[in-house]
Amino acid sequence: MRHIVMVAAFCALLSSLRAAETDSVYIGRVDTVGITTYDRMLNGPSVRRLVNSTEHGLHLAWMYSASDRTTFPDRNMRYAFYDYDTRTWGLATDVFTERSGCGNLDADPVTGVAIVSAHMGVPLHPELARDMAPGAGIFEYCTGCPVVDSFLWPVIATGANRWIHVGIIDDATRDELWYSRVRTWCNWDSAVSIAVPSYPDQNIAASKVSDKVCLTWVDMESDSQRPAYYIESTDSGTNWGRIVQLPYPSGFGGDTLTTFTGHSLFPFYDSHDRLRIVASVIPVVAGTVYICPAAIWHWCRDNNPEWSEIHRAGGSHLAAALGYGATYASRPTIGEDSEGDLYVAWEQFDSLNVEPGPPERLRAGIWSAGSDDNGMTWSPAIRLTPLNTVSHRFPCIVDQMVAGAPDTVVVTYLMDLTAGFFVMGEGPADLCPIACQFVPENLLGVYEERGAQHVQRLTPSATIVRGVLHVGQDGRMKDEGGAVLLDITGRKVAVLQPGANDIRHLAPGVYVAKLESGTRKLVLQH
Predict the structure, then answer these.
(1) What confidence score (pLDDT) does residue 317 get?
(2) Contact 230, 214 (CB under 8 A)
(3) What average pLDDT does range 131-144 have in this prediction?
């Protein structure tokens, strides 16, 4: 049985945050898969862009351009494949034969081939591309013309029966959510209206074990408290149930209301066919919406309570602006491992990590947390990316963790070399890397051990891990028996003896404590 070993902060604040800003250490391994100058990857929430075909490899798609012109004449969806046989990435390739973009991907659950969406052409219409074999990068196409002309921003999900489900926005008003599907290649069903209003913040999920499909969206036209909705079909989109408004999470307390962001909702059906939604929320005070602080939450109707808070971030002061359309912590995505443990990743800004500009902009990092109890409780959040001169944006966590010992959490994101969007005139046209980060799940706080016990929290600056390691507020180890402390690269950073060591000088991050009783992962946080 897997357990989340939650280790809270056990040292004092670092004397200088600036010293950490030059830290270049990423947790796990980071592969650079491709590039793009199109640094505003998404309008709304994160969509599925990283998929695990467990018998073949990882599929990854992103919006590509190498142009320094804001018209982006070479814009396209680009695809890369990580082959499990060779343990390497193949050459990234354009998916479509003409200018396209604003799509996502899923994979056929039977054949394991990638299916990528985009919008293109005049009139604007959705288009699908299907690979000829897993990782081949040779695509056949399925145009939405003329059945679903004048629709854009397609998000897709492939169901257990291999039907492709599509959520789209009408081009005429750009304010109405519609649904279509492709049951056989390449035959589109006529689009049906789902909801008004809906700016392009829609998202979609399809079960891989049943005929369930879910669409989510946020009403961004509300002046202050913005409601979020979902709708489900249990027969692969033939019939739809009623629209359900999600209750607001308890949020920030007192007279402060909670509102969903336009980057908020990400639905996911787990291997037990349970619908989960992760969301980002921000406060509303006296009718005014604030972008900071922000919180990441998880919803599952099978839980009691349905909402659980994953992480809260931000304070009252920001050293610079966030940039176009951003909130302090947002765009969460969710996936699971082979044991049903859940993992969430999101983007989060740092209040003191400033791109000097002009204009000045805060830089962001990628954060993650896990749960081994159906999302009822969550491990302490860990920043996967360092505080450096890169702004890490637009994450997507893989739907199924990569199997191994331990399983590996995989997250893709954009490494924006200059904070602020070139697309929106906020910065230069950098060739920004598309990264894929591989993190063994035990480095995120999940450790497999029968009979293991959760951490008992004592104070914000000290913890006890029962039977393993005791660290007091003075940063000294208290337990009998010594321990060797390693960093994530395996380098020995300290040999700890009972009551004789001060570890407050160590940088925050993930460490491994090797004891006589075994190995434990520790998270050192400031």
Answers:
(1) 78
(2) yes
(3) 97
User: What kind and span of H or E run contains 244?
Assistant: strand 244-245
Residue 411 tokens, joined: 């997250």
What tens digit of pLDDT does each residue of 188-198 get? 999 999 998 77
Structure tokens at 362: 């805060």
Report the half-sphere exposure of 404 (CA within 13 A, side-chain side). Answer: 14
In the chain, CATH 2.120.10.10 covers 36-403+417-438
- C-alpha 284/C-alpha 358 separation (Å) is 30
59 vs 42: CA distance, rounded Å: 18
Whether this model's pTM surpasses 0.85? no
Strands (E), 42-150: 50-53, 57-64, 76-83, 88-89, 93-94, 105-107, 114-120, 125-131, 139-143
36-403+417-438: CATH class: mainly beta
Strands (E), 293-407: 294-300, 307-313, 329-336, 342-355, 361-371, 382-383, 391-397
Q: What is the pLDDT of residue 11?
A: 26
Q: What is the pLDDT of residues 474-510, one digit of tens each?
A: 444 444 456 777 665 456 777 776 655 566 677 666 6
User: CA end-to-end span of the chain, whole Å?
Assistant: 30
* List of residues 6+ apart from 353 with CB closer than 8 A: 21, 362, 363, 387
Instruction: Give the HSE-up count for residue 304: Cα atoms under 13 Å, Cβ half-sphere.
Output: 0
Mean pLDDT within 128-155: 97
Q: With 50 as the cut, is the pLDDT of residue 379 above it? A: yes
DSSP of 11-43, one letter per residue?
A: SPPPS-GGGGGG--PPSSEEEEEEEES-----S
The pLDDT assigned to 516 comes to: 54
Is the pLDDT at 16 greater than 60? The verdict is: no
Beta strands in 356-473 (DSSP E): 361-371, 382-383, 391-397, 408-416, 432-440, 446-448, 456-459, 462-465, 469-471
Give the separation between CA 328 and CA 348, rounded to whole angstroms. 6
